[in-house]
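Quick illustration, no need to memorize.
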Amino acid sequence: MKNFLGLVFSLTIISAICAAVLANVSALTEEPIKKMGEERKKSAVKAVMPAAVEKIDEAGEVFIGRDASGKVVGYAAEGIDAGGYGGDIKLMVGFEADAKTVVRYITLFAAETPGLGMKLSTPEFSGQFSGKDGSSLKVAKEGGQIEAITAATITSSAVCRAIENAHKKAVAAK
């Protein structure tokens, strides 16, 4: 019995020390991780905006791109759809000044099948969206004009819905 209590006591002390170390590591890394996420988002916003953008303002969930004279030339918003094959798909989507015409998108997060669904980031697939109306996107199989990724129709449809989600945010900010 004495042996058992000694083991329990030792395990408790070791667990408490490990918990304290983990709490400190978490506290030390929380801010840098948050900062990296914000920087990644800002660089994605710049990448999806029209070329004429000189200054970017943040208006809630939407980023507004302005030219040198202050005129609005584009919008960017995060679009999310939970219906991807691997779960959530998060995109940063850029729109022209009409808040409707897609410029391009960048994948922020996707846990799709490697080699299939992850092709959503390739220029061959993502390039199809440039110049299209972000409010009415569908894959060809559903009567739309987007060619789905071969063997990844679920992912392709989720990308369409994520862009529509971003479009709604951009239009609301216009």
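The chain has a mean pLDDT of 92.
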